[in-house]
Amino acid sequence: MIETMDERATEVFAEHRELLFSIVYNMLGTVTDTEDVLQDTWLAWVSRHRSDLGEITSPRAYLVRIAVNNALARRESIVRRRETYVGPWLPEPLVADTPEIRDSADAAEIALRGESVSLAVLVVLETLTPLERAVFVLHEVFGYPHAEIGAMLGRETPAIRQLAHRARDHVRAKRPRYQADPQTQRAVTERFLAAQLSGDVTGLLEMLAPDVTFLSDGGGRLRAALRPIRGSDKVARLLTSRMVSSSVPDMTVRFGWTNGEPSALVLSGDVLYTVVVLDIDAGTGKVHGVYAIRNPDKLRHLRG
């Protein structure tokens, strides 16, 4: 049977979908918007594929360029939504029961994927401009040369190099620590949850860095702190308060992987209620950040 042009277009797009998802998700921090961008990219790809297939010498380069520019356009609407968002904003989590390990022709993509989508890094990337974030993701995470990024974005190479330098310095200043290894992350997460659920303030204080920050994203849908809570004493007492411990009916906790890192998944009955991720200093084992994602809209894609 002769393969149609649309069938071939579908095959090629599917071959690159994982890469496109990773790039766009890192640029946007939301699964829903990422899927929308990929849909728009697919439509543009099919249309171009039908009209002048012979002119597309590199499908991968073409798809990445379209996806990146679509993501930049989508970023504007995300920024507008953030202006009226209730409380702290955290990325939509990617949750799995086990760490994802896949074969790939591009080993760099696999090696960098865990750090590239870590929640702590995504939180820092939110403080970049859309262009700085795009350049950082493409260059620092996926290894694209400055000249190639410039061609994607329609900018001169020196301008891209300057954006990359500014973004890299900003990220390093905001997050100077190395990421803890998975074994440490899991062990600290288990001890942290045990201390919290038992009301062990002293135990929590031993694990928390003095400058720890607690961010809880309820999106105005569920009870959550409306601003960041900073300082080990305040965070420990908040997490062991009756308000927090009694707020989840029929609660169970299991451990999984969120954005490539060990995490705690809090369920209310059979429904995922909160995803908790800790930002842990690899050198000291201390918790510098506690991220609790409770907004049902951000957990919807994980249900069913």
Secondary structural class? alpha+beta
The SSE string, one letter per element, is HHHEHHHHHHHEEHHEEEEH
Helix content: 40-55%
Instruction: Enumerate how many helices there are, as a single number.
Output: 13
Strand content: 15-25%
Strand order of the largest sheet: 1-4-5-6-7-2-3
Descriptive account of the structure:
The chain has 304 residues and is of the alpha+beta class. Among the domains are: 1-84, Orthogonal Bundle (Rna Polymerase Sigma Factor, Chain: A), CATH 1.10.1740; 182-302, Nuclear Transport Factor 2, Chain: A, CATH 3.10.450. It contains 13 helices and seven strands. It has helices at 5-28, 31-52, 59-83, 107-116, 119-125, 130-141, 146-153, 157-174, 182-197, 201-207, 232-239, 242-245, 296-299; strands at residues 95-96, 208-217, 229-230, 251-258, 261-268, 271-280, 287-293. A seven-stranded mixed sheet has the order 1-4-5-6-7-2-3. Strand 6 (271-280) and strand 7 (287-293) form a beta hairpin. Helix 1 (5-28) runs antiparallel to helix 2 (31-52) and helix 1 packs across helix 3.
